[in-house]
Amino acid sequence: MSAVPFVTIAMPCLNEEGYIEACLESVAAQDYPRDRMEILVADGGSTDRTREILGRLSAEDPRIRMIDNPDRIQAAGMNQIIRQARGDVVIRMDVHCEYAGDYVRRCIEVLERTGADNVGGAQRPRAKTWFQKALCAALTSPLGVGGASYRSAENEGFVDTVFLGAFRRRVFETAGMYDPKAVTNEDAELNQRIHEAGGKVFLSRDIVVHYYPRASYAALAKQYYKYGQGRARTLLKRGTFPSPRPAIPFLMVVSGATLLATSRWHPLTLPAFGLYAVATGIEAIRVGRREGAPAIPIVWGIFPVLHASHGVGFASGLLRYGLDPDWAPEPERLDPIPVAVGTGEPLEA
Q1: Which residue, of 122, 149, 193, 215, has the fewest CB within 10 Å?
Q2: Which residues pair with residue 9 across a beta bridge?
Q3: In 3-state terms, what secondary structure has residue 248?
Q4: Quick one: pLDDT at residue 147?
Q5: Phi, psi for residue 172 in degrees, rounded to 5
Q6: Rounded alpha-carbon distances, angstroms, from residue 60 to 46, 51, 181
């Protein structure tokens, strides 16, 4: 990369009129050199005021450009952006996140310092509502996140995956682009291919981004059900996981269902469920008390929602994608395009 790499900010969106303007304003105000950055937004056919807002913002700031994403899925939108990106580095951003003012600069610094192919920060939750505060507490627990490295703001080092990501352009030429049919788990699946291609992924404490988690039990259950489906799809597609963590909730659900179905022949069902209740209750007290006593029962209820929703979603994904795989045999790879050093412009332009 050149001394000051040209950066493409990649942002898929759909019906984000309440968030897109504030998000783009914060991205445009990054302390990275203005003339070394472009901001590409892939809109999936928004029916609210998102496209109107994007049109106005792009007229005010020529770095901002809207791209159509007819497939609507975020991963497909990322591919639309990557095909048109002029950057030496492609940094994925999400509309519902808040980024430190030095986010882009830190990503570039960590890429250059570590030699990694993709870098990112921890997935730091931030709360507005009482339920979100309890959920943030639950997500600090190994029972809530399974010990995933990218969930901890204190971790640093080479890992299996990171939140969002800042990619060297060559990643998409060697490991391939995003799986355009992946509704969830697309980042982890791409990072798995980066590792398989001999690349490295680095998690840095210096890269700071916050996101707002779901605000109700129902929304959380729906989210983790989809997560489970996506991780089952990745397992069937790649044939392996970097770690066994994603399968643990599924194994818990299978074990619980088996105990219930066979309870007439053994006395283990009540003790097993009682042990689970005690373990999650103790953990709810440990992580929830910092938010006050009223948060503890909410956290206690969050744990089984996370585990059961993910586990049932995983089982559903194994059945759905086992019967009807929807992925291509090989990932689409970005065609290498010679880029003039330090300009971000194709040589033929």
Answers
A1: 215
A2: 39, 91
A3: helix
A4: 65
A5: -75, -15
A6: 21, 14, 34
Looking at residue 297, its amino acid is P
Average pLDDT in the chain: 92
DSSP 161-203: --EEEEEETTHHHHT----TT-SSSHHHHHHHHHHHTT--EEE
pLDDT confidence of residue 344 = 56
CATH class of 7-128+144-213: alpha beta
168 within 8 A of 72, measured Cβ to Cβ:
no
**pLDDT score for 24:** 94
Is residue 132 within 8 A of residue 299, CB to CB? The reply is no
In one letter, which amino acid is 178? Y
Instruction: Sheet containing 163-168: give its strands across.
Output: 64-68, 37-43, 7-13, 89-92, 163-168, 118-121, 201-203, 157-158
Note the pLDDT of residue 220.
97
DSSP state for residue 264 in the 8-state scheme: G
Q: In 25-64, which positions are buried (b, 16+ CB within 10 angstroms) versus exposed (e)?
A: ebbbebebeeebbbbbbbbbebeeebbebbeebbeeeebb
Strands 209-211 and 64-68: unpaired
Residues of the chain with pLDDT under 70: 1-2, 146-147, 337-349
pLDDT the model gives residue 64: 96
Question: What is d(CA 283, CA 94) in angstroms, rounded to the nearest whole number?
Answer: 31
Domain ranges of the chain: 7-128+144-213, 229-323
Q: Measure the CA–CA gap between 299 and 136, rounded to whole angstroms.
A: 9
Q: At what angle do helices 269-288 and 248-261 cross, to 10 degrees?
A: 140
